[in-house]
Sequence to fold (577 residues):
Amino acid sequence: MQVAPPTTHTPETQTQLFRYVLQLADTSLILAHRLSEWCGHGPILEQDLALANIALDFLGEARSYYQYAAELEGQGRTEDDLAYLRSAVEYRNPLLVEQPNGDFAATIVRQFIYDTFHYHLLQQLQAGPDTQLAAIAEKSVKEAAYHLKWSSEWIIRLGDGTEESRRRVEQAIASLWRYAGELTTPNATEKELQAAGLVPDYAAMLPQMEAHVARVFEEATLPVPQGVFMQKGGKDGRHTEHLGYLLTELQYMQRTYPGLTW
Amino acid sequence: METLELTQEEQFQARIDADIRIEPKDWMPDAYRKTLIRQISQHAHSELVGMLPEGNWITRAPSLKRKSILLAKVQDEAGHGLYLYSAAETLGASRDQMLADLHSGKAKYSSIFNYPTLSWADMGCVGWLVDGAAILNQVPLCRTSYGPYARAMVRVCKEESFHQRQGFEIMQTLCEGAPVQKEMAQEALNRWWWPTLMMFGPKDADSPNTAQSMNWRIKRFTNDELRQKFVDMMVPQAEFLGLTVPDPAVKWNADKNGYDFGDVDWEEFWNVVKGNGLCNQERLGARVKAHEEGAWVREAALAHAAKRKQRASEV
Fold:
């Protein structure tokens, strides 16, 4: 396989790109961590396997982004330094992915919202001008397509399953939909990179994303939520209270035994 | 001519003795079927429950690489559970019934998983010692007389040997690291050594099922034979790591070309088997909870599938 040479950027763009790639890395890691909490506790063995599989995909994607971010930063930090030695206010993931697993319906709704965005984002990034980001996106988009299929099918099963599953999935939508908007609301970094053509225009992705949601919800016989007040802040380091506990666990070893090799 | 006069049971034993695999549709004695269902389902349950002690460290793994390897390893165990439940299903057992037996406490799983995982070094010991012991138990099962079980075990063993290597590698990294890491490794070895020796089961003299299982070639080595092999394999590896096996009686015996070693605390063994290990309640409790909390999900999937089928038939 031919590997394209890394794209060169101006120092300003490089700094912005570092922030953006770190945001992608944090997002994939935090979601992977949440999904990995299911391991051994899934509702049926086959779904335990699927959840671990998806968690592994996100973890792999996170590592690619962290490695690239470390390279862009050029300060000698490693993937582990970036993941294990930053505090909650330094983390840049959107609020959605740090939300607790809740019941299986909440996990599915969180996943469906993120998968819808993730798949469409990667489709754009793989065709973008930054060769390394495009390469990571090209690898991950195949996984993301499977994730979206999986979570969409579960939304349909739960929505059009039993009374209980419908009640639970509706409850999960009511509590999680307010975190959907942040995904496609660019922060300052994203705006600058959008202007530079390095990050896709989210507004242009929305029609396809909305069409997918509408299709799945229709089959699930669920109403698409309307007029929900959208929360945001995670991408700028203002998180919900859940992230601190997650990082306490994630970073326990590196914080307790600094500077060692494992 | 004479073969015509053999009973079904004699013909069956003749096939076993000739090392011809028994397949699902072949005639087999009820006791052979029952023994296999018991053993395979117990093995499947062990994979399932075995996810929990290691799952306990997935969220705290010390690096992204370790997190990824550990998660993949625990996922492999779920996969092993799946092959094994499928193998047991070929004997007429249903997964629902097998799970019900696990949850009610009627079916057993490997007692080793009733010990807690307290430090990162436990991930090393579980891979190195527990999976090491499992491999010794399982490699002969790749030649076991029942075809589907033997074939499932070929896949399981391939993955287990990778697990064991990653466990050893965790230990090696700790032993080559800072003093605090080496202490962590030694402390974990102290806790896991004796419980892993117990994994081979009671002494031959106290193992009533061994003779029949050997005769049916379900089992190929006795418990004591496997335990000796394990000690012979592990003592030099511990020495290589610079760790001390917590048994003062361990000593090379040139006459038997193996190590002498001390006696397992059988009282502890039987206590854990009976449900009095530190984590028996938690492990089984976690499985029951996952199953009960997943009931509505399984029901929803069935209900949705039924609706689809209904709609398709209406078109």
